[in-house]
Amino acid sequence: MTIETQHHRKLIELIKYPIITDKTTKNIEENIYYFAVDKKANKNNIKEAIEYIFNVKVNKINTLSQPKKIKKVGKFKGYISQYKKAIIKLDNKYTINLFEES
């Protein structure tokens, strides 16, 4: 494998999945998208990954680390896994199609 393909594979692995809730779907109209990303990713890596994967231009990125949450089921207690959230504002000319047209 060449160095370039390894770099592209790492970029693809940085972005885990889009976060889709009522609030995030309303923000899609304003060209703001939410993604769960790798905990070790920084803003430059996230920007490079989004621009490579979706072929768009990113204007602004905000990131925040979600805290671990306690989940109780009966007498058992566990934790919901922690992840980093990236809030991405795209340039007005670009959009990302997260939902398939049927």
UniProtKB/TrEMBL annotation:
Gene Ontology terms, MF aspect: structural constituent of ribosome
Keyword Ribonucleoprotein: yes
SUPFAM superfamilies in UniProt: Ribosomal proteins S24e, L23 and L15e
Domain of life: Eukaryota
Gene Ontology CC entries for this record: ribonucleoprotein complex; ribosome
Biological-process GO terms, alphabetical: translation
Keywords, ordered alphabetically: Plastid, Ribonucleoprotein, Ribosomal protein
Classification via HAMAP family: Ribosomal_uL23_B (MF_01369_B)
Family per similarity comment: Belongs to the universal ribosomal protein uL23 family.
Protein name: Ribosomal protein L23
Organism name: Membranoptera tenuis
Organismal lineage: Eukaryota, Rhodophyta, Florideophyceae, Rhodymeniophycidae, Ceramiales
Gene label: rpl23
